[in-house]
Write a structure and sequence with these properties.
By secondary structure, this protein is α+β, with helices and mostly antiparallel strands. It folds into two domains: about 250 residues, L-amino peptidase D-ALA esterase/amidase; about 120 residues, Roll (Ubiquitin-like (UB roll)). The protein is about 35% helix and about 25% strand. It is built from twelve helices and 14 strands. Strands 1, 2, 3, 4, 5, 6, 7 and 8 form an eight-stranded mixed β-sheet that branches. The protein has a six-stranded mixed β-sheet with strand order 12-11-10-13-9-14.
Length: about 400
């Protein structure tokens, strides 16, 4: 069963100054798209944040190197699926550089203005020849109508493409993400690409905005507590419109939150999207920490899978999050049902909580710590038998 937040769109617009494409180059089976391209008409301000895993995909070395050399200017992003190009040594880094070099030659820009991202199984050499021989066809397909082709090309175990679009006071933002398993917020938890025609004055400002937006979006999603060595989140701004910086950051944050929820909803084997509501914290960071611990608890996630309103697991997870609070002042709810407050359970409300878990695919679990006014939402999914099966067969 797939949890759907909304129907997959047939078409997603791109902000002014961007084109996109996707095609099959032979990495996936059954002619599925596996090579994607984001192309800016002119160099644009770009910023990235990456996984905190000590094992790094080769493309991360290249992205860091190229962004440093270009002063944060980006002309193109090449993305391949079904091969992580990770744990492939120096040759893997050279392979990623070669792909960037070949694309830069074709579009007539410095190689450092081309970035690359890879996703898929770890340990296999990057099939450079397959990628390079399809670059001309990929460029020929690049257009303002290519967003969904790109979104499909970057998928791995995703069951649907993840692409969202919004317009704020004339400024357009479009975002893409790839992620279904190996998802936990130690950076961006997946591959993510945020595009805007808004104005960001410097590469430093773009990077700061990206990090703040990620802290309130991608850093609040988890599927299984496992962090990929290839996690990368990119923000590109073409500076075509003039939205105030606060408005642009709010738009980018909203885009990230929408994508984060689609990732959790499409978690491997998921039947429920779970929103963890943390209230009554001393500050937002504290609320986020408690939410993350609850969201990664296998006991909480399997209880939801079994439609069991086991509020004790929620409160126990909050209690081990490293935040001091008085349990007898806390409150726990499942959907609209108050299942624990003032130091005592409310078993009379558990039937209502059970019906919420059975009837609603969008589940809400909440806890109020009773120590302040700060809050945060974190998104996750239930943990089912299908998750085990998907990952047992991942490379088979």
């Amino acid at each position: 069963m797939t949890v759907s937040l909304s129907p997959v769109p047939d078409h997603v617009p791109l902000p002014a100054g961007f084109r996109a494409a996707g095609l099959h180059c032979g990495l996936k089976k059954a002619q599925q798209p596996d090579l994607g391209l984001l192309l800016a008409d002119q160099p644009v301000h770009g910023a990235a944040i990456y996984t905190q895993n000590r094992l790094l995909g080769a493309h991360i070395h290249v992205c860091r190197e190229h962004l440093a050399k270009s002063g944060g200017m980006v002309r193109a992003v090449l993305v391949n699926a079904r091969n992580a190009n990770c744990a492939t040594g120096q040759q893997g880094i050279e392979d990623a550089r070669n792909c960037c070099r070949e694309l830069a030659t074709r579009i007539g820009c410095p190689v450092e203005q081309v970035l690359m991202a890879s996703t898929g199984p770890i340990g296999a050499p990057l099939p450079v020849a397959r990628i390079v021989t399809h670059l001309d066809a990929l460029l020929a397909r690049a257009s303002g109508d290519g967003a969904m082709d790109f979104a499909r090309a970057i998928m791995t175990t995703d069951t649907y493409p993840k692409a969202v679009h919004g317009v704020t006071q004339g400024t357009a933002t479009t975002g893409f993400a790839k992620g279904s398993g190996m998802i936990h917020p130690d950076m961006a938890t997946m591959l993510g690409f945020l595009l805007t025609d808004g104005s960001s004055p410097t590469a430093t400002a773009t990077a700061a905005m990206l990090r703040r937006a990620a802290d309130r979006s991608f850093h609040r999603v988890t599927v299984d507590g496992d962090t990929s060595p290839n996690d990368t989140l990119l923000l590109l701004a073409s500076n075509r419109t003039r939205l105030a910086s606060e408005g642009l950051e709010a738009a980018v944050t909203s885009l990230g939150q929408q994508l984060a929820r689609t990732i959790a909803a499409d978690g491997e084997g998921a039947t429920r999207l779970i929103t963890i509501e943390v209230r009554g914290a001393a500050d937002e960071a504290e609320a986020t920490m408690v939410g993350r611990v609850i969201a990664t608890s296998p006991l909480v996630k399997t209880a939801v899978a079994g439609r069991d309103p086991n509020w004790g697991r929620i409160l126990a997870a909050a209690g081990r999050a490293g935040v001091k609070f008085a349990a007898d002042r806390a409150k726990v709810w499942v959907g609209a049902a108050n299942v624990y407050s003032d130091g005592v359970p409310h078993p009379e409300n558990e039937p209502q909580a059970h019906r919420h878990l059975v009837d609603d695919t969008l589940v809400v679990l909440g806890v109020d710590l009773g120590r302040g006014t700060a809050s945060a939402d974190v998104w996750t999914c239930d943990l089912t038998k299908d998750y085990v099966q998907i990952n047992a067969d991942y490379r088979s």
